[in-house]
Amino acid sequence: xxxxxxxxxxxxxxxxxxxxxxxxxxxxxxxxxxxxxxxxxxxxxxxxxxxxxxxxxxxxxxxxxxxxxxxxxxxxxxxxxxxxxxxxxxxxxxxxxxxxxxxxxxxxxxxxxxxxxxxxxxxxxxxxxxxxxxxxxxxxxxxxxxxxxxxxxxxxxxxxxxxxxxxxxxxxxxxxxxxxxxxxxxxxxxxxxxxxxxxxxxxxxxxxxxxxxxxxxxxxxxxxxxxxxxxxxx
Length: 234
Description:
mainly alpha; two-stranded antiparallel ribbon; two-stranded antiparallel sheet; 6 helices; 56% helix; 6% strand; rod-shaped; disordered N terminus
């Protein structure tokens, strides 16, 4: 079994884009709730309505803030969704910024002048929308933190690199060269032990009775041998 060196890239944990998307969504929710506290629900799309911290707001404007707040919190749950939310904020508030510039007279040509000013936009709103578009672009292009995930282990097919020895071959009953060598060594040790024991035994007998000596062998007389031979043939 070998460890694979080939891994795959995976998004690591909570991403900065998700954090920013969640914070921006929360800010939109606070602005929407505070706007309704200031404006109420009457004169829904009136051009001259109420002011909130120097920004002109009306109920329609507050609804848009609430919608972007809920959308931001929902899309902050995923890294890709958070970046998509950033692109939506950038495009929508970029368009609203251009509309506000045309209403303020910065851009002389206003092809949608017939729509009037249903969002109650003023100069301060234009600066705010410029900042929101920049934040949306930042969320959209913010790089993700990634990590390389390596698979735990991969099994290599047998015979591809190195043959695997089967230990069960030793149990087939066929003696190997090593077994024969071990048996030969054991036999030599056994023979050597027997010889040593016989030598020690002979030395003990001689030490026990040193007067005992082997009987001398007497030579046989040829004449007596002939007599025994003749007596045998009779």
